[in-house]
From TrEMBL:
Name assigned to this protein: Phosphatase PAP2 family protein
Taxonomy of the source species: Bacteria, Bacillati, Bacillota, Clostridia, Eubacteriales
Signal peptide location: none
InterPro entries hit by this protein: PAP2/HPO, PAP2/HPO_sf
Organism: Candidatus Flavonifractor merdipullorum
Superkingdom field: Bacteria
CDD domains assigned: PAP2_like
Keywords: Membrane, Transmembrane, Transmembrane helix
Domain Phosphatidic acid phosphatase type 2/haloperoxidase: 51-161
Amino acid sequence: MTAERYAKLSAPFRSRPWAVKGLRSANRALTLLCYICYPALLLWLLAYMDARLWGAVLVPAGSFVLVSLFRSKVNRPRPYEAMDIQPLIIKNTKGNSFPSRHVFSVFVIAMTWGWICPPVGAALMVVGVLVALIRVIGGVHYPSDVLAGAIIGILAGLILYL
């Protein structure tokens, strides 16, 4: 992505302050939704003493640690650092752009829910796509960051099914 492409992508939002506010609110709300859904699933599995609890804890947690370590080694600059753009989503983080941990988290949570309750998992996959789009339009990730996060989240989740 170039600064010119980002300018075109974000222009419809920049010209409408309410759209920027909506993008930021959607980013927060969708992220919060996923981070509420995951502990809710774990509590449900615990309450019913479901043996799948261990997989639902260990696979997402272990893959999260691995993604975080990989990300810190790669330490890719974020678009607003590399292209000198003004992102729509305010973030002061330097580096650690690849892969997107937000998108990874949504997809691994979606896969975990899909293992237990496929309709909820499918709905969370849609949320994952929206989060990925928001993070790119918001200027905090490149398309390759969110694509990699989604793929890794899906692959990590597939471990649950094996």
